[in-house]
Amino acid sequence: MLILRDGSGPGRMGGALTKRVGGRWPGATAGPGWVLAAAALLTAAVLTFHSAVPNAVGRLGSLLEAFLPWLGLAVPLLLVAALVRRSAVALVALLLPALAWLGQFGGLLLPTEAEQGGHGLTVVQHNVSDENPDPAGTAAALAGAAPDLIALEELTASALPAYAQALAPRYPYHAVEGTVGLWSKYPLTVVRRLDIKPAGIGEGWSRGLRAGATTPRGEIAVYVAHLPSVRIRPSGFASQLRDESARLLGAAVAAEPVDRVVLLGDLNGTVDDRGLAPVTSRMEAPRRGFALSWPASFPVSRIDQVLARSAAVADIRTLPATGSDHLPVVARVTWH
């Protein structure tokens, strides 16, 4: 719409031609606003349909899913750009990625749910690091959270006695297989090594165990697992060994005869990562809490997981740093 003012001629206002265009404020330029809107739509699409991102080349899909919540940072960045460009169309488009992020992760931000007559356990999961300089102090810090179960990974032969001694007064039952261990307030039964070693890894690799725990509310199966590490390389996201180990772990959970299963472990992946789908498709993830656990110095991802079958992981949070490069996580597992 053209505006005439001051009799300065057609299309003149104060000596300057002004045009108001739908979706733009006066003085805004058209191009950048639509570019920002397109970026907002793309962000919303990736958040919503991240599983459609192919894994064939460099396992790009899994790499994206390892840091998927951080894609939400695009929203405030695009918001600032839209305000600077004074683009109404970009502001409207930003509603889509904001809603997509809230739909996927907003529930994790909600307050912890109060228990409603359910029964359950408090559990701690921690990769203690094989270079931890203070095993006894780490054990004391974990016990300070008063959990019923404590799962540890990267146990070394030299550090194991320190963990065992520090935890023994409160946790009289424990089991260790290879480099993973479980400490419990309740008696442990049917303890066995969990075979999750992928092909291509040499002998002596033992990073999984299964144990029954006789709780006041019945028997549960507890799995402790440490899946192979992943790496970002020039060729892409190297997660093949982790994915194969996850398939073996998922098969073990599927074959578990005990109804209630709790899995504690460093899975070297987030619950959004499709590489862990053989496990996460069979178990429930935490309902509340982000609990970013790695690296301890600046956590960007939760690769330390607490998952459950025939039970709910009501909430999860991190504990203060220990001598490890991971933060411990503590979770509440409930059932009726």
TrEMBL record:
The protein's name: Endonuclease/exonuclease/phosphatase domain-containing protein
Keyword entries, A-Z: Membrane, Transmembrane, Transmembrane helix
Record domain Endonuclease/exonuclease/phosphatase: where: 125-326
Transmembrane spans: 34-54, 66-84, 90-110
Domain of life where this protein originates: Bacteria
